[in-house]
Amino acid sequence: MSTSGRQTMQGRRIWITGASSGIGSALAIELARAGARLVISGRDRGRLQAVADACKPAEVMLAPLDVASREENLVAGEQIRARFGALDTVVFNAGICEYVDLPVFDAGMIKRVMDINFMGFVYGVEAALPLLREGNAPHLVGMSSTVAYTGLPRAEAYGASKAAIRYFLQALRVDLLPQKIDVSIICPGFVKTPLTDLNDFPMPMQISAETAARSIRKGMERRSHEIRFPVLFALILRVVAVLPSRLRTRLLRPLSRSEKSK
Ligand SMILES: NC(=O)c1ccc[n+]([C@@H]2O[C@H](COP(=O)([O-])OP(=O)(O)OC[C@H]3O[C@@H](n4cnc5c(N)ncnc54)[C@H](OP(=O)(O)O)[C@@H]3O)[C@@H](O)[C@H]2O)c1
């Protein structure tokens, strides 16, 4: 802790998933500059190595894995224990995004998104909890999204996975109180990354991955329950979420691309 009561990142052992690209790689660099010791995960070892190089001179361990594999998460947990002994913070950030455009409805796609975004997250928590219990002022941080605030058209798969993470962490926060493990939920608006580069619609108030990483680091230092940004964008979605359902549905209709299905 610093004199301002904030948790500094200096010397903290932090595991970040989805660190090979976008928000995760910017966050790894941001936390490395703040003095953290890192474990970075993703599937692509080459891109992880490039991120580790960008983090120099910070200590960085590569733990390549597919988050959707329970086994690979548990193995990574053991490798982390062997190298670092324990973990002080985890940032489970890995994720993918796919949209639904009716009349095409592919349950396989929804399962794929849930397997990576939600079950991948849950497997990470299973692997990390024993390490966090032995850590210093432990902190569990999960990547949700402002999409979790209300049901948005086309986001049946992605939004459900992010809402599941938010609910899961809100519940886990209470259950972890006796173990003194803090929980933070990250809810970004639009951030420019390879994930959003695939979007073909306007993304208001979009920010850079570096700006997002700075907001996340500050939220982690404050132990904010919910780290949301950009603040105005998050506020607008929270207002939309509390509108009467019929009004909200009418307001959101132009965002849908579903063709008239039989
Ligand atoms: N960008 C936004 O506007 C925005 C807004 C709200 C929330 N988010 C969330 O922020 C997180 C990061 O997204 P991003 O925008 O930075 O996207 P990104 O640049 O595409 O990064 C996604 C990261 O997740 C990893 N990943 C994906 N599938 C994986 C798997 N099966 N196993 C292990 N790692 C996997 C990728 O690594 P590999 O490809 O190397 O596996 C990559 O490092 C996601 O959870 C996303 O939903 C993003």
Rg calc? 18 Å
How many structural units, i.e. domains?
A: 1
- Report the span from N to C terminus: 60 Å
Q: Helical segment tally?
A: 9
Name the average pLDDT: 96
Q: What can be said about the biggest beta sheet?
A: 7 strands, parallel
Going by helix content, strand content and strand pairing, the class is alpha/beta
Q: Within the largest sheet, what's the order of strands?
A: 3-2-1-4-5-6-9
Summarize the structure.
The chain has helices spanning 22-33, 45-54, 70-84, 107-133, 156-175, 194-197, 209-222, 231-242, 245-252; strands at 13-17, 37-41, 60-62, 89-92, 139-143, 182-188, 191-192, 207-208, 226-229. It is α/β, with parallel strands linked by helices.
Q: Can you characterise this structure?
A:
With about 260 residues, this protein is an alpha/beta fold. The chain has one domain (about 15-255): NAD(P)-binding Rossmann-like Domain (Rossmann fold). Helix content is about 45%, strand content about 15%. It contains 9 helices and 9 strands. It has helices spanning about 20-35, 45-55, 70-85, 105-135, 155-175, 195, 210-220, 230-240, 245-250, and strands at about 15, 35-40, 60, 90, 140-145, 180-190, 190, 205-210, 225-230. The strands form 2 sheets. It has a 7-stranded parallel beta sheet with strand order 3-2-1-4-5-6-9, sandwiched between helices. α1 packs across α7, α3 (about 70-85) runs parallel beside α4 (about 105-135) and α4 (about 105-135) packs parallel to α5 (about 155-175). The longest helix has 27 residues, at about 105-135. The protein is globular. It starts with 12 loop residues before the first strand and ends in a 10-residue tail after the last helix. Bound molecules: NADP nicotinamide-adenine-dinucleotide phosphate. NADP nicotinamide-adenine-dinucleotide phosphate binds near residues 42, 145 and 193. NADP nicotinamide-adenine-dinucleotide phosphate binds near residues 20, 95, 97 and 143.
